[in-house]
Amino acid sequence: MVKSVLVKLANLLGETGLYRFLCPERLPVFMLHRVMEGKSDLAGALPADTLRSYLDYLASRDYHVLSMDDLWRVLDEGDEIPSKSVMFTIDDGFYDHHDVAASVFDEFRFPLNFFVITGLLDRELWPWDDQITYALHHTGIRHADIRLPSGEMYSVNLSADTVRQKAREVRNALKSEHQEHIYDWLRTELYKKLGVEFPTDIPPEYRPMSWDEARSLRARGHGVYPHTCSHRILATLSTQEKHHEINESLRRTKSELGYLPDVFAYPTGRLSDYDSVDIEELKKAGFKMAFNTVSDYVRRGQDHYELARFSLPGNTDKFLQIVNRFEALNDWRTHHSPLPVSSFPSR
Length: 347
Ligand SMILES: [Zn+2]
Description:
Elements: H1 2-15, H2 18-22, E1 26-27, E2 29-32, E3 35-36, E4 46-47, H3 48-60, E5 64-65, H4 68-77, E6 85-92, H5 95-108, E7 113-116, H6 118-121, H7 128-138, E8 143-147, E9 153-157, H8 163-175, H9 182-193, H10 211-219, E10 223-226, H11 239-257, E11 263-265, H12 276-285, E12 289-291, E13 298-299, E14 310-311, H13 316-323, H14 329-336
Parallel strand pairs: 2-6, 2-14, 3-4, 5-6, 6-7, 7-10, 11-12
Antiparallel strand pairs: 1-13, 8-9
Bound molecules: zinc ion.
Zinc ion binds at residues 91-92, 227, 231, 267.
C-alpha cells in the first residue's frame, strides 16, 4: 500500500521531467511479444487497450517515438537523444503483430520495429519455445523423465507447478543445451514422452503474419528486420550454423521485402545467448545494429551490437517509471546521491 503510493508519487514527479533531466542520454527501447484484442487465453499477452493507453499517454504529452533511422543517427552521428523519447520493437512475427499491434501503432502514427523469424513466416516451423508450452498444455501426463539433448535426465512434474511455470523451467533448461537438433528433439523426445501428437500444421495461436503483411508494414512506415531463421539460441550453435542463421534470415528478408535490412535481434537475447563470434558474423553480413533483451536503457556512444531493451510491462506504473527514466536513477543514485538508497521507493 505504502509502496504503491510512493510509486505513484515517484511517477508524478517523473512527469515533471526531473529524472529525465538528472539522467539524460538514455533511450528506453521496449520489446513487445504478443498483443491481443479482448480477452485472450494466450499466457502473457498484452491487452491491446493497455497498449493503446500507453501510446495515448505518449501522444498526449508530445513524446517522440523514434524510428530505427532516428536511433542510428543517435548512435552513429551523435544526434542528441530527445528528452521525451521512446522506441518500440516486437519479436518473432506472429499474426497478431500485424493484425493487432501494428493497427494500434497506426492509430497514433507511431513506428513499430518488427523482428521476424524467417522460418516462421515461411511456415517451415514455429518457435521451439512455443512448442514446449504447447506440449505442456496438451499433455495428460503428470510426470515424465525426459532425456535432454546433452543426455542428462530432466524430470517434468506437472502436478507440482502451473503449466506456465513449468514451461519456463523447461525452456530455461534447454537454453543451456546445444540447440543444433532442438526441433527433432522436441518431436522425438518431449512430445513422445508427454504423449502429445505433434501438430501437422502450425497451431492457430502460433501462426505467423504473411510476407505480404510484412511488406505492408514497411509501406506504412514500420521497420521489418530478421530474427534468425529458426529462433535457436546462437551461442549454442556451431560456427557454420550461426553463419547460416544470420545470413539465410538476411537473404530471406531481403528477397521478400526488396531491401537490405541492417538491424538484427538475438533470439531470447540474454548476454549468455550470443557471443563475439555472432557479433563478428553480423558485422561481416553488413548489419549495423543488434538488440539483446537485457533490461536497460540504450545510451549514446554505446556498442551498436548490444542494444538493450525493456520488456514492455503490463502495468502502467512500471511503464511510466521506465519512460520517465526513473529506472535510470538507480545508476544516478550510486554516483551522485547523498541520500540513503531507502529514501526512494524500491523497484
Ligand atoms: Zn524471439
